[in-house]
Amino acid sequence: MKDSINPVVKLIALVLGAVMVFLIDSVLILISFVLFLVVLKVFYKVKGRFGRGIVFLVIAIFMAQLIFVPEGQVLLDLRLFEVTRGSVENGILIAGRFFSLITMSWIFVGTTEPRDLSSALSNLGVPYRYSFLLILAMRFAPIFQFELSNVQDAQKIRGLKIDKDIRGLIRSVRYTTTPLLYSAMSKVNTLASSMEGRGFGMYKKKTFLHPIRFTSWDAVLTVLLFILCFELYYLNQLL
Amino acid sequence: MIEAQGLSVTYSSKDEPSIQNISFSMKKGEFVWLAGKSASGKSTLMNCICGFIPQIIPAELEGSIIFNGEKDLDPLQLSRHITMVHQDPETQFCNETVEDEIAFGLENRCLSRRKIDKRIETTLKDLNCSELRHRELRTLSGGEKQKIAIASMLVLNPKILILDEPTSNLDPISMKEVLKAIENVRRKSHDLTIILAEHRIGDLVEQIDRVLKLEDGRLTRDIKDLQSLDQEQKKAMVDYSYPEYSREIGKEGETILRIEDMDHTLGGKKILKDIALEIKEREIIALMGRNGSGKTTLVKLISALSEVQEGRIKVFDQIMDSSSKVKPYELGKRIGYVFQNPNHQIFENTLEEELTFAAKNFSKGESKAKRWLKKIKTEEDLEKKTHPHTLSFGQKRRLNIYSSSPHDPDLVIVDEPFSGQDHQNAVKIADILDDLWKEGKTLIIVTHDLRFAKKFCTRALVLKDGSLVYDGEPYDLKSVSGEDER
């Protein structure tokens, strides 16, 4: 679901959020923040579910803290290791930070049109040659993902087995990067020709068919975001 | 209007020039067919006309392009007058929606929003695709994408429109749509000069004023008044056919593939519906259907590159369903698979290593790979140390087929082998496939080429919107699939 909030404000919120999750060391606040993000994701109907990979990583980060960083009062003795209050808190904080960063980025990408972000950044004075890179990145990310999957399929069907060690990793990189690189090179030339052939870079400025302007409401929202962050930090110090 | 004087281009990766000493001049409003085999220098010449060589695509350029008396303009200056539609619209697009893509060039020229809006509306109307305006590009069919690529160039009101094989990746229906769109453009704008590089132009030959033919980088023919030729002569220029292949098999072979009640969903969309079929050994299957009808998904499922969701596939002695999985490299011993994009399946740095790649992985077939290497070296005049990525598109495609099968798989699947190939290259590919069949292999060939299917294949399967709508002799196909011969 898209919204009417200026993409630049959302970008500021993302950066502030990323800083805040590292500043917050109160388990209660971080859990509340995570829950807030989950509600936000559901509210905005951001597509995609938390995949197995993310869930596995969150659990792995939590478990690593639980096992390897025992601190404070012992809550449970599992013979192989002791579960301590400090390790549980650290586990929640670090896994929560990781989860928050992923979710915030997800919400940002899911609710922001690259075109709008590019337009909004240009409106703030960022040269459109640079802001347009965002659109290109979003446009070509799924294409390269599709190509990567094709290359890996071609490797498998021609019998390439990659061992899960350093040598295997080197072989995998070698046999994957060469075809991808050649494919990308041919695309780069066509894309550059297509863009320059339509006058990209002809003038310092360009028209935006759908301009996104930074309004006074966006300014108010930005100030509110900063105030909220300061309040959160203050609350974190109190707890 | 435009003149080329002694154009020669040599790429740094090659010793020989790709085009040599080409000179011509074109008048306002001419419709020129740039003919020639793959790798004859057509794309290089078109990139010179637009100024992309050497500014964007590095190469050594001799000679000049003169536009309206002005010499050696850069691509940005030329972009005011000349635009080029590339072979693959996916690579050309730099936005996510139809409207943004068409607006792109006008935005760069700083036109007002009102003018941009009006020009988009008019251009889409001219191409009979106004309903696409608010669609996302990824949701369009192949033909629709190519029409939008043309619209994004036409909207700039160019004086010269260059089309580089705009239909080479399309199914016959989409191809007709695009050729029709070009015909409409031609009818509406007689001042527009059109340069069309295409292997198969069909009925569009009636509109063409002039033919420039390139051979091995040289301009060998310049037919200035094509409309003075009679119908037979014109037909001979666009006609093509495959040789006769002897097919003395029946369908009495053993069943090697059985698919039962198979459905497959991707991204919430049902790609395959209720597929049930059997394939016997030594059959040659033409798997046909429009772009997006589910052909590639089906062959990926057969070779275990996608997991079966519903239904069951038995291929040789392996069973795949929602609970039983088979590893692709296990099936790879018996299935050779040639993907659509040649670059995605070239892994090694020399021709020799590339040909023996699968043989080494499966520990089988190295001697056969070496035999093929000898054959390729002689036929294509190549060295065993030649880097496979320096080969031409046609040579890469042939290499792909050889390198998929040195270990003697029983079934070889080839996904769109003729896409972007001229007829001579297509016949060479057909000959290689015929050799594989004579060795005793079963073939599944995903193709849009109905003439090939009729001459070469023993059976045709046609998919439409994920359903199998035809299973039978290829020569009955026209009435069933609605596809025309190209």
Describe this structure in words.
The complex is a heterodimer of chains A (239) and B (486). With 239 residues, chain A is mainly alpha-helical. Chain A folds into two domains: 1-127 and 212-239, no CATH class; 128-203, no CATH class. Chain A has eight helices and two strands, in the order αααββααααα. Chain A has helices at residues 7-23, 27-43, 52-68, 85-111, 114-123, 128-157, 166-196, 216-238; strands at residues 74-77, 82-84. Chain A has a two-stranded antiparallel ribbon. In chain A, a hairpin with a 4-residue loop joins strand 1 and strand 2. The longest helix of chain A is centred in the last third of the chain and has 31 residues, at 166-196. Chain A is flat, with a radius of gyration of 23 Å. The relative contact order of chain A is 0.14. The model of chain A has no long low-confidence stretch (mean pLDDT 88). Chain B is α/β, with parallel strands linked by helices and 486 residues long. Chain B folds into two domains: 2-238, P-loop containing nucleotide triphosphate hydrolases (Rossmann fold); 255-334 and 409-481, P-loop containing nucleotide triphosphate hydrolases (Rossmann fold). In chain B, 33% of the residues lie in helices and 26% in strands. Chain B has 17 helices and 20 strands. In chain B, the strands form four sheets. Chain B has a six-stranded mixed β-sheet with strand order 6-7-8-3-9-10, sandwiched between helices. In chain B, strand 11 and strand 12 (269-280) form a beta hairpin. In chain B, helix 12 runs antiparallel to helix 13 (366-380). Chain B is globular and about 70 Å long. At the A-B interface, helix 6 and helix 7 of A face strand 6, helix 4, helix 5, helix 6 and helix 11 of B.
